[in-house]
């Protein structure tokens, strides 16, 4: 499903170091400079050829025993032993009440404590942040891992619910089949109940009538004769279900006149293609016989060239990058660039106002969790031979820790993207590789000549009885920039036309005007092509030898503006799309731009609300937020599966170094390069 296939969370290292996360969410989101993601379809011609021709055998996925793991860094994720302790505390806290854990992660120590810590120091007290539900109430708890002390935080002022758990989704998909009305209407359409697959979709929020119950809307498909059941929707049936009880609340059934699309042509697997297969004779492979140029110390500290940063999986953000520092080539000083960066939220609104579609306005991180939807990476297919893998340890809904093996991989490579990649397991039980599938709408039309002149079909007719609905994609990034220290400022470097008034043969030129944002509202930025600016985060307290404040700039790309009305409920809930750039005062509790409890939220706990407080931000500890986005008008090339779509933005130094920092990097000469020989084909 598009918007639920994979996530890329990458870092702004100056060249080709890459961190890859594969999850069930679709769109690639490079976090910045020159880093890219590699996925390769497991049955693609390129990967098949690579596995067969290269001399070295395909490496088996490594499995690590994490039961004896201990933390080495203040930001290291909770270990299995620590999570077991917390689970026991949670059981005791709730007593005989039935509860569910929706998040169990490290509660980061205070920022100043982390910044003062050095390797060899004892770790600050380890605490867990727990989001749970019991008796219809949301709980936000802080648990001291050693003492077991619990502090409960008041969240009664925040609407919405925590993200759904995997257990929630696995249990609710069978709820429709327990309903006689549903079974009857399926049979009336000529569909075998054994071929039906129903998937849970978050309902958004559209008024107080929806408050008080944690709801989900299930849409159903037929799996008959295709692996790509998304292309065979049973249009018009929506099963509204209570997630806490799995009770079917309401069935909307208005699409009996709409035929189910045929299975022919929907299968994306190479083995299903009837025509000639295109296969280049000479595969391309990047090899490093002597190993990679980076190291991973103590499980989470990545060092490459003159960069180092802390990396860890996260159930909501996917991956988090912290304490990003670079060693200055001139002074040898290890300098701070970014304290923490991650994808904060994703918003995918579909542009069809009809009853079976209006609610499809997904907030994937806050409603489902990028990391929770992650799957294990496949060596060579997802990551190259030189990759280093990192496991994740997450909590099940009862708090029991489990290991998600090979969730993240780190490697060096040249730029380039795979053709497509996807995995679908909850329904079929099979792991199938691809990138993203447009959520399609069933229709009675088989040709555009059947569509009336002024009729809005809300998308593109992709094939017989299939419409790809127009939609948007927005990904918001949290970037806690600490350029050479905590106190930074945001500068709008405005570029404008200036006239010479006869003092030169030139009539005009471009002039630079720099404005330092004093408060948060002054840093709410809408990008304008014909009114351009650069956007710098500087440290006004530290200057270069020639007197420029040191800084970094965000270089936008993949920009799109939301066309939804500001008062439309989906827009209020995902208000981070109101601007492409925001800057807020650092607040440890403000990390998720769509709100702590995004599921069925009302929109009163968003970055728009925080920023409108208009706190001072000049020469303060500030956070930069960047919203990447693009519109998607589906086309026939998106059927039956989309090619990979890539986008991103850069973070680049601006007067941070005294001169070009790459001048000391020596090039390789011919005799230093490895020579890889292909083995004979099997």
TrEMBL record:
Keyword match Disulfide bond: no
Enzyme class: oxidoreductase
All copies of domain Copper amine oxidase N3-terminal, residue ranges: 162-261
Gene3D superfamilies membership: 3.10.450.40, Copper amine oxidase, catalytic domain (2.70.98.20)
GO molecular function, one term: primary methylamine oxidase activity
Pfam families recorded: Cu_amine_oxid (PF01179), Cu_amine_oxidN2 (PF02727), Cu_amine_oxidN3 (PF02728)
Location of the Copper amine oxidase N2-terminal domain: 73-153
Domain of life: Eukaryota
UniProt xrefs under PROSITE patterns: COPPER_AMINE_OXID_2
Modification note: Topaquinone (TPQ) is generated by copper-dependent autoxidation of a specific tyrosyl residue.
Annotated EC: 1.4.3.-
Residue intervals of the Copper amine oxidase catalytic domain: 285-425, 440-663
UniProt cofactor(s): Cu cation
UniProt KW keywords: Copper, Metal-binding, Oxidoreductase, TPQ
Single GO BP term: amine metabolic process
Cofactor descriptive note: Contains 1 topaquinone per subunit.
Family according to the record: Belongs to the copper/topaquinone oxidase family.
Protein name: Amine oxidase
Organism: Sesamum latifolium
